[in-house]
Amino acid sequence: MQTIESKEKLRHLLSEARRSGKTIGFVPTMGFLHEGHLSLMRRARRETDLVVVSIFVNPTQFGPNEDLDAYPRDIDRDTELMIKEKVDLAYMPNVEQLYPEGYTTYVEVTGPMTQALCGKSRPVHFRGVTTIVSKLFHLVAPHKAYFGQKDAQQVAVIKRMARDLDFDIDIVACPTVREPDGLAMSSRNAYLSTDHRRDAVVISKALFEARNMIEKGERQTGTVIRHIAGRIEAIPDATIDYVAVVDADTLADIETLQRDILIAVAVKLGGTRLIDNIQMTTP
Ligand code: AMP
After folding, report:
1. Exposed/middle/buried for residue 194 (C-beta within 10 Å: 0-12, 13-18, 19+)
2. Residue 178: what pLDDT?
């Protein structure tokens, strides 16, 4: 595996690979890698010839009172894990590389898709995500890019951006990888105290229960939301940011369940913001 910090070097290596006919698979991350990230790398390894992973804690997607400075980092461990997964290129730029002095250009998906769900409490988040992902898409120019369904709104927004801006890149959404007890893996799980880690299991349990209710015939969004909210409200120290049932593609609110739906939650547990979701087709 080659570790690269400069965009010029990255571009040079990738244009050579492209000239020799290799397909390029790309996995953008913020590092502190776990099995969720590794599952994307494995899929890219299976489906493409040259696997590029970026590790960059992107400042523009963090709000002023969020955890940018505290975000967990461990480059040595990440490097070992990427080598094990047979990643070809690890791109680890610094902030000045990607946002040099005078930087003022942003890419924004407008409208309800970025204002709903996480967009309500994180108003600059998706603008930061689409800006950095566009920059990385231009630099890497992959054939396929891999994202986790764990961040369902992010995947929907990136698919929208890729269509709208004619990125000729196949956006591949991969299933959420969970801990044995059901908690969705996240770099932020490292912030949880022992008690909060134990209680966090209720979030995925509530989502699975909601799925069961729908499979058994429940069709009213309100009933499903009330069930999930009730379960989460019973966790000590938990504050609900949102519990929502929306159309899986447009993320628009729906009253009656039909077709492909996304059941999504965001919860603050202690100081840690956790998100999780389930996508399903209404039977
Ligand atoms: P992050 O480092 O949190 O920005 O995540 C980088 C990529 O890994 C994103 O596409 C995430 O959706 C994906 N990812 C994070 N956690 C998981 C998980 N538990 N299962 C699958 N993919 C994940």
Report:
1. exposed
2. 98
The ligand 1 atom at the shortest distance from the C-alpha of residue 154 is 12
- For ligand 1, pick from 77, 118, 150, 179 the residue to mutate: most ligand atoms within 8 Å of CB: 150
Local structure of residue 109 (DSSP, 8 states): -
Q: How many residues are present in the chain?
A: 283
Q: Name, in order, each residue with C-beta under 8 angstroms of 230's C-beta and a sequence gap of 6 or more.
A: none
Contact yes or no for 206/228 (Cβ under 8 A): yes
Measuring CA to CA, how many Å separate 113 from each of 130, 136, 158, 267? 12, 22, 11, 20
Q: Are the CB atoms for 237 and 226 separated by under 8 Å?
A: no
For the CA of 175, the closest atom of ligand 1 is: 21
Going from the C-alpha of 227 to that of each of 123, 209, 223, 233, 243, the distances in angstroms are 27, 9, 6, 10, 10
Q: To 10 degrees, the CA torsion angle through 67, 147, 23, 8?
A: -20
Q: What angle do CA 65, 71, 77 make, to 5 degrees?
A: 175
39-48 pLDDT tens trace: 999 999 999 9
d(CA 141, CA 134): 10
- Residues 201-214 have pLDDT tens digits of 999 999 999 999 99
SS3 266: strand
**3-class DSSP assignment, residue 53:** strand
Cα(147) to centroid of ligand 1, in Å?
7
